[in-house]
Amino acid sequence: MHPPLLRIDLTVAAIVFASALAGCAGNVSDGPPAPDPVYHVGDRWVYNGSDGFRVKTTWVETHEVTAIDASGIHIHITLVGPSVNVEREELLEAPGLVKIGAAMDIETRRFSTPFIRYQFPLTPGQTWNQRPTNFNESSQQSGQLSNFRRVEGWTNVTTPAGTFDALQIRVIMRLDDSTFWRSETNCDYLILYSPKVGASVHEEKNAFYVERGDPLQAMVRAQNTVIDLVSFTPGK
User: Fold this and answer.
1) Half-sphere exposure at residue 190, Cβ-oriented, CA atoms within 13 angstroms
2) Rounded to an integer, what distance in angstroms lies between the CA atom of residue 206 and that of residue 10?
3) 229 with 47: CB under 8 angstroms?
4) Reported pTM
5) Architecture of domain 6-233
6) Domains in the chain: boundaries
7) What confidence tens digit (pLDDT) does each residue in 55-111 have?
8) Contact of 60 with 48, CB cutoff 8 Å
């Protein structure tokens, strides 16, 4: 799905990522917590997505609740674009708690304990940190990733779907995909979650790894993704 990766100097990259961590701090404010969303069969979110550096890959991403039963909340996800055609399924134990689904991109992971995407009620200043064990169906490997998240506060964002009051969430993850030739992937994400639609309305995702043995310790950028909500259709 990603175009050729971009190598960048470690020192420069460190400055970029550190700046990103503090980038929107002045634009957020305190406020009330956001409660658990209530999902219904037929709830449907449509997003525009793009990824890449010099040449962008684009797609339309659709999430739809297909069933709610004793096993959890079933969500069917498709990504369709000129060079993208992906279908996958997610299973939530409860809103925000992923039993089967992706952590970074379009991979499918099966978590032994739920991966906490959102810890409701979401409250400004709230943090959580976990190391869930999982099996990655794409790589056929088991591992344990690191998932740290902080709810920075309320902000306002405009997307093709409209203008939303949203909670800004900073995500720092270290994946479990290191090999003999490269380090694990490090992810720095900004997620804007809107209680009005019960999901994210804007996401900015950056990730990198370092090749082992590289004397310059240059970072290889692995992800540069922007996702915006286009529409939300509630189910019955």
Assistant:
1) 23
2) 15
3) yes
4) 0.88
5) Beta Barrel (2.40)
6) 6-233
7) 899 999 999 999 999 999 999 999 999 999 999 999 999 999 999 999 998 999 999
8) yes
